[in-house]
Design goal:
This protein has 112 residues and is mostly helical. Helices cover 71% and strands 0% of the residues. It has 4 helices and no strands. Helix 1 packs across helix 2, helix 1 runs antiparallel to helix 3 and helix 3 runs antiparallel to helix 4. The two termini are 31 Å apart. The mean pLDDT is 84.
Length: 112
């Protein structure tokens, strides 16, 4: 079984957005189970309240349809942008290729 670990979001690295979403995108039920476990066994009332909110509230509810649907879309869009972003950082990037890739990204986003 391939386990993905939770990652912190870096403000300076674009790819960190995808890295921080990937575990939630692919392992939301495991994260939700871990939150329920923490809520049940935490001795700290504030921690218990925070994790219960993340696991159960209508606003945050990990595992809820709206949350998961949004997560799938957000992950797909960030992944597409990341591919182009990485290729634009190559030292030998050609301007014509960059324009072509950006045009492809715009088309992808419009079609999505």
């Amino acid at each position: 079984m391939n386990c993905i670990t939770l990652k912190l979001l870096s403000q300076t690295r674009w790819k960190s957005r995808i890295d921080s979403l990937k575990p939630i995108r692919y392992q939301a039920s495991k994260i939700r189970d871990a939150l329920f476990y923490l809520a049940e066994y935490s001795d700290n009332p504030r921690h218990r309240s925070d994790v219960e909110s993340l696991a159960e509230s209508e606003t945050h509810r990990i595992g809820g349809f709206e949350f998961l649907f949004g997560m799938v879309i957000w992950y797909d869009l960030l992944a597409a942008v990341n591919i182009v972003s990485k290729s634009l950082q190559f030292e030998d990037m050609d301007l014509e290729v960059a324009i072509f890739q950006l045009g492809g990204l715009v088309t992808y986003l419009k079609n999505y």
